[in-house]
Structure of RDD family protein:
Amino acid sequence: MDPSDDQDAAIRTPDYLADEIVGLIGVITRLMLFGFLLALAVIAERAFRQAGGNVAVAQLTVPVTWAFTPFVLLTCAHYVYAASLLRSIREYRDRESEPEKRNGLFRRVSSQTGVFTLGLRPAQPDKGRRVYQRSFKDPSMGLEVSGAILLAGATIPWHLTPPGTLTLASGWPSWLAWAAAAVTVVLNWLLVSTWVARLSEIVTLPPACSSPRPYRS
């Protein structure tokens, strides 16, 4: 065995992994919040101004025509952090066997990592089916649905023309925007669904039974 593996195992204790999970989810929820605010700004720009113009959020200024580009970048960042988060969750799930500590980690996530996970409830596995379900009573679920709708509204190339007619943009940038809308909405939804389901396994399944499951809202 490589000595570095022993050293890594000594460092990455269950408590260390719990802190890492909380930190990674905190980063992801901040990315989601920034995207949420940016989507609101883009939609307002499209609704109250004619075609063209810029939108600015937190020192970032983007032409409305190319407003989909920061959402693509945010989605890429979400993917990178989610991949790291899933590895940490899997490692924590394999190493931590005490139910109280597992429950404590989930409570930390649902109370300390940001508005998009505030009040998060464990996704419940369906009996006899390899899917998870979440309740719409979960406040974080409502924010995630709202975020997906706003993301679609911000990336689809539209604007209002007097007297309030909805007009879809034309030209090759609009085709890129349609493609970006489809990819970013679907990929972000799948990423959130996956890491919420995996996180839920920490408290819904005993250590020996934890296994990957698809997710259904």
Observations:
- Residues 14-48 form the longest helix (35 residues).
- Residues 3-209 form one domain.
- The chain has a mean pLDDT of 83.
